Amino acid sequence: MIDIRDFSFRYASSGHFALKNVNLKVDDGEFVLVAGHSGGGKSTLLRVINSLIPHFYGGEYLGNVSVYGKNPICTLPRDMSSIVGTVLQDPENQILMNRVETEIAFGLENLGLSGDLITKRVEEVIDLLDMESVRHRKTAELSGGEKQKLAIAAAMAKHPKVLLLDEPTSQLDPKSAESILGVLSRLNTELGLTIILVEHRMENTIYLADRMVIFDKGEIVSEGNPREVIRRVDLDKIGVGYPPVSRVAVRKNSDMIPLNVKEAQKYLRVYLEGVKISQNLKKFREVLLTLKNVKFSYGKRKVLRGVNLNVRKNEVLGIIGRNGSGKTTLGKLMVGIYRQSGGIIKRRVPPKESGMVFQNPNLHVIGDSVFEDVAYTLRARGERDVKRKTEEVLKYLGIEHLSEKNPLDLSGGEKLLFALATVLVFKPRFLVLDEPTRGLSWAHKKRLVSIIKEYSRGRGIVVISHDVELIARVSDTVALLSSGRVVLRKRTREMLTSSLTYSTQINKLVQRFPEVDQNIMLEEDLGVPA
Amino acid sequence: MKANPLVLFIWLALIVFLSLIIVNLLSLIILVVSTVIPIIFCRKREYFTYMKYSLLSVILIFFFNMILLGPSKLEFTISMVLRLLSISSAFSIFSALTEFEDILRVMETFRVPPKTVFSFGISLRFFPVVVGDARAIQEVMMAKGVPLNGKKFKDKIRSRLPVLESMINLSLDRAINIAEALEIHGFPSEKRRRWKKIELNGFSAFAFYILISDFLLAVVYFFYPSDLIRWLVLIIPYSVVGAWYGD
After folding, report:
1. Counting one residue from A and one from B, how many pairs have CB atoms under 8 Å apart?
2. Residues of chain A with pLDDT under 70
């Protein structure tokens, strides 16, 4: 059992407490979902339990913590690691070995187990997590989902009593994320393992949890059964957000709050009846970019095999598709980072007036202040009036208060806005955003949606994303990329409705009732503002 | 089949030592050839990639030496080039045939302290990741319309400085993440035991002892140079080429 009493913690480099008077008890075998706005104290809580606080991250602390009889304050992380398994957010930086088997064995070697026992443990987790097909592979060759599964396997091999996961799906595509969440659900139900999961994606996780804990500004604002928590706290207001079906139920004052589509079928049908979607189709005339039979290869590996596509002024084009289908490569070709190996790209906007925001915002960091990094873009381009333009863009994105901060110290959502600022500062007429919602809280996603909509006026924007809810909200048209080709391009509502995979949660519910308008896609269509 | 990393390490050390102590041109040519033969058996493409860059530096060194020392020192220049070739070829084979874990196991066999082993090993493991970062940062610069290829050399250097700065920032951030990951894996630990130790069986044991003997013979040659010992020292490594494969 985990027992945290009156615990507060302040990082050595910070002026305020990251955790304030936290009281939390977690029983054996519980699945606890920890949610909250970025910077709310969720990751700090996990660091307290695995004793990285205070042994790795120093600071001031008050109160008591007990984790299965051990006090993390007096126990080194290496000694806690046998009872607490931890999986971090970034799959790239937590895997230390070159081969799958040796990565699983690494923690066991550090525990000083015998060779035979290590062999037994490695075999059992490979079976448990169904990793036979990748056991001899190099870790660098694994996909993001496989890497996270490996991180779980390495943690599980130590037979921990509790597994901590800090946004394990934030860097993954939906399919890999589902696979990881499926594994967690199985470990919890079949082995009775205690799981504490920090997550932003409410719609995929909330129904798995026995208990939900909501953090805001370092304090627990609510905890309990997810349905009770949803009734007690306005999750939209504190930036966590609801699963779309739950939001409809809450806003319509439904007696029962569904947590997933299955439950929503019983209780939300009444709100779908009589809804008719009238489509005001935007018209686009001026073409900014045309791709004709565009091909691209990395060495001998063909990535794009003849893409035909155009982007028009005032249009937001969403690009969806499986991992490895060539979405990011296509984005880089569009802004002129790569040159096509075949086909024609006709540009009305030169590459110098095109910009791209990469999926890892850390790549946009150069120096140690937000203001200087944003100003650098203008200076390096030889533009004038740098100070005024920089201040303008920071104000436009609502991050002027962060201008003196080190970009690497920002939260996930703030980092994205910073990366966006380094590009928007020169006002590109054509913009590509690659997976902009990875690791973002609901409040930041909402902010991003309004920025994209506003910025698209008089310009062309391409949004590459697996996040169907985002694409549904911002895109005018959607292109589906598969095996290096655009296999379908349609208006958003045509593309993202009546689909088993590329549909919003609300539309998946609608599909269960053929008699209602099948074009219903978002909560907004039901009169529920997100 | 896979080379035994311990045998390979001893072989590498032997080639480096011989390259440094032998001055005879014909003997150095034989030494270079002895480092090329294993690649016929293992056919690793990585070897040729590494050697491509080595050959470029060898050509540069040859011309610099010719310019600075003059044609009168041609024999010395050629011997230096051959030394560099044999050493880089041996290192290329070692890199092509071993993995990060093999190097860790070899270092742990020689009882190098675990912290040193992992500092070295992890820098090797994340080297390709850092190279990928450098490429990605340059792409980000291009995506911001920042010119990276100025006309003057000075401009080129100046435009690439922020890339370096960005890489340092990213690497520092990554270093914290890796340290955190090491802690949650229970490292460092006084109880640490290796899962799979390097075992010397059959051919690999034979190769190991032959190479050790050769090393001792090379030490004898260093103090008491003679033609007979030199030829023996050079021929012995050929006899163990096939012994890497088989365990």
Report:
1. 160
2. none
Which chain B residues have a beta carbon less than 8 Å from that of A376? 162
Question: Which domains does chain A possess?
Answer: 2-241 (3.40.50.300), 287-526 (3.40.50.300)
DSSP string, B39-65: HHHH--HHHHHHHHHHHHHHHHHHHHH
Closest by Cα among B174, B179, B181 to B136: B174
Neighbours of A383 (CB within 10 A): 14
Contact by Cβ (8 Å): B102, A102: no
Closest CA to A245 of A202, A182, A200: A202
* Interface membership of B199 toward A (CB under 8 Å): no
- Length of chain B as a residue count: 247
Residues constituting chain A: 530
B154's tokens: 């000075």
Q: CA–CA separation, A430 vs A337, rounded Å?
A: 13
E runs forming strands in A348-476: 354-357, 430-434, 460-464
- What residue type is A33 in one-letter code? L
Dihedral sign for Cα A331, A336, A341, A343, please: positive
pLDDT at B34: 86
CB of A258 closer than 8 Å to CB of A267:
yes
Question: Nearest C-alpha of chain A: how many angstroms from B53?
Answer: 19
Q: Is the ipTM of this complex over 0.90?
A: no
Identify the CA nearest to B126 among candidates A98, A155, A143, A153: A98
Three-state SS annotation for A403-419 = CCCCHHHCCHHHHHHHH
The pLDDT value given to residue B247? 43
Check if B46 contacts A (Cβ < 8 Å): no
Q: Pick the closest to residue A359 from A397, A307, A323, A398 (CA basis).
A: A323
* Listed residue (A351, A309, A347, A344) closest to A326, CA to CA: A309
Rg (CA), chain B: 22
* Cβ atoms of residues A464 and A331 within 8 Å: yes
Give chain A's count of helices (H) and strands (E).
21, 18
Query: Distance (Å, rounded) from C-alpha B180 to C-alpha A409?
Result: 16
Task: Please give, one letter per residue, the 3-state secondary structure of A252-278.
Answer: CCCCCCCCCHHHHHHHCHHHHCCCCCC
**Strand pairing category for A162-166 and A84-87:** parallel
Work out whether strand A211-216 and strand A31-36 pair parallel, antiparallel, or are unpaired. Answer: parallel
Task: Report the pLDDT value the prediction gives residue B241, as an integer from 0 to 100.
Answer: 59
Tell me the backbone φ, ψ of residue A143, rounded to 5 degrees: -75, 170
Name which of A37, A414, A42 is nearest A237 in CA terms. A37
Mean pLDDT of chain B: 85
Q: Two tokens at A241?
A: 């957000």
Q: Is B187 helix (H, G, I), strand (E, B) or coil?
A: coil
Tally of CB atoms within 10 A around B37 = 13
Q: Position of tokens 């302290």? A: B113
Q: Tell which wins on pLDDT, B234 or A190.
A: A190
**Selected residue of A43, A44, A106 to mutate for chain B interface (largest B Cβ count, 10 A):** A106
